[in-house]
Amino acid sequence: MLTDKIKPDTAALSLIREGVRHMQGYVPGEQPIQTDLIKLNTNENPYPPSPAVLEALRAITSDALRRYPPPMSQPLRTCIAEIYDVPVSGVFCGNGSDEILALCTRAYVEKGRKIGYFDPSYSLYPVLASIAESDTVEVTLGDRFSWVDPPLDAGMDLFFLTNPNAPTGMRFPMDRIALFCERFDGVVLIDEAYVDFAEEDCLTLCRRYANVILSRSLSKSYSLAGLRVGYAIGSPALIQALDTIKDSYNLDIVAQRLAVAALTDQAYMQNGVRRIRKTRAWFEKEMIARGFALYPSETNFVWCKPPSGLSAPLYVEALRLRNILVRHFTAERLAPFVRITIGLDTHMEQLLRETDAILEEKHD
Ligand SMILES: Cc1ncc(COP(=O)(O)O)c(C=O)c1O
Question: Ligand 1 pocket check: which of 27, 122, 195 to mutate, most ligand atoms within 8 Å of Cβ?
Fold first, then answer.
């Protein structure tokens, strides 16, 4: 009987790879079921995706669903290659940019070599390194989370460079990034998940240096976090390595078609980005006026420290009680800060009203 074969949990545990048994998985921001919350905790875009995306969704036939999708997402790669004027052989498409980051750890890092990244930056990197059983080099950012040159002789095969950085929202100086890419003899993955909100991107660096690969996301600027599409641009040799190890059909047909529709409507994306940047500029001034310390954001979120007397965890909890979700990280250096996604103007107005009430209560 089948039940005879079920082992007690402790025995089953021994079946799991040692490294996985002891590792901490990635902790995503909360995705609540409750729908009446103002959700400013996972850097989603408050505007709907381009109408062309919904049109493409409606045009999907049952025949398209019945068949396997193009294995290399060819139409999508061609679309991206045309937008950025790069060869199709220099474009890769992933199931979210997260998949691209994971594939990089498997494609470029030799056994016994290391994976580097800044601390703080995207908290997925150490998890991916754990899964790949690679040691890590954490390069601690300077005062005010500013750029520090990563070491060149630390045994790293891959360096994840988030630009603009998360969760701080700040962009690093282009000349320092370029110099590092030139000197480093491993692969530099520049994670540009937020770059459409920034003043400058690193596309020129992946044209100039064969060891540089960019990853980008449709989750933020294109309002398609639910679709799970990211893409990478790099030298054909780096891209081909990702192709070799990816799942056969890593992007489903819906994702491929809708991503083409979204990317083709660049004007819509740019317009949405302009609105978010405008809201961000206004919101930053309002928060500074209330005594918050802010970092210069080039993303769709702000990184801020509440005024003295109001701790970040207390502020986050008080907002939560008022149905507003923002993000708090518990790591020691991050704990005094709060990350707030830029939502609709009405969301930010509500957040400011609640913040005033919280600050008022604090003085009672
Ligand atoms: C820095 C950074 N890179 C990558 C991602 C993942 O993006 P995607 O939704 O394309 O997997 C995120 C998501 O929040 C991020 O903050």
Answer: 122
